[in-house]
């Protein structure tokens, strides 16, 4: 196979670029630990109700405009749901599932995560704009999946 010089140049350049991108990504992931946020706390999904903090689900004020929400997801509800916080609050969610995989998506925000039984998910969000935010389960979890929703009211 005969190769033109400019083909060789382009092949070398593109291969070199791929190697550089992979090195940058690898450096960020392993040396700078810039991987996606992850939380490896586990829980016995059979004993969620008896395990702290899920034995007392609810909302707790932990600072000025800072709240902690402990919530369990189960077919087909969020406990506790219908949460209310003042505008400008940062809410730290601690979530787990009591049965199957559910989703936790808050419309109009970047909050969107899977809630996997056996794992504890922690995620935070600042709510600046007043309004009623729809919270949806976006993982198919059974016959009532489409009814699984709640709200977060920001006043
Ligand atoms: Cu829970 Cu779909």
Automatic annotation (TrEMBL):
Residues 49-155 form the Cytochrome oxidase subunit II copper A binding domain. It catalyses: 4 Fe(II)-[cytochrome c] + O2 + 8 H(+)(in) = 4 Fe(III)-[cytochrome c] + 2 H2O + 4 H(+)(out). The chain crosses the membrane at residues 9-30. GO terms for molecular function: copper ion binding; cytochrome-c oxidase activity. InterPro entries: Ba3_CcO_II_C, CcO_II-like_C, Copper_CuA, Cupredoxin, NosZ/Cyto_c_oxidase_sub2. PROSITE patterns: COX2, COX2_CUA. Keywords: Copper, Membrane, Metal-binding, Transmembrane, Transmembrane helix. It is found in: Cell envelope. GO terms for cellular component: cell envelope; membrane. It comes from the Bacteria. PANTHER family: CYTOCHROME C OXIDASE SUBUNIT II, NITROUS-OXIDE REDUCTASE. Subunits I and II form the functional core of the enzyme complex. Electrons originating in cytochrome c are transferred via heme a and Cu(A) to the binuclear center formed by heme a3 and Cu(B). This is Cytochrome aa3 subunit 2.
């Amino acid at each position: 196979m005969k190769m033109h010089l400019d083909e060789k140049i382009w092949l070398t350049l593109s291969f070199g670029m791929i190697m550089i991108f992979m090195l940058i990504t690898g450096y960020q992931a392993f040396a700078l630990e810039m991987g996606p946020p992850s939380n490896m706390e586990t829980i016995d999904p059979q004993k969620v109700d008896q395990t702290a903090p899920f034995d007392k689900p609810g909302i707790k004020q932990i600072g000025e405009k800072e709240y902690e929400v402990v919530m369990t997801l189960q077919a087909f509800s969020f406990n506790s749901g219908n949460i209310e916080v003042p505008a400008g609050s940062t809410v730290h969610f601690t979530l787990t599932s009591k049965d199957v995989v559910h989703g936790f998506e808050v419309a109009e925000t970047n909050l969107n995560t899977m809630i996997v039984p056996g794992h504890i998910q922690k995620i935070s969000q600042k709510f600046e704009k007043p309004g009623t935010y729809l919270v949806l389960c976006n993982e198919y979890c059974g016959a009532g999946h489409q009814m699984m929703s709640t709200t977060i009211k920001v006043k």
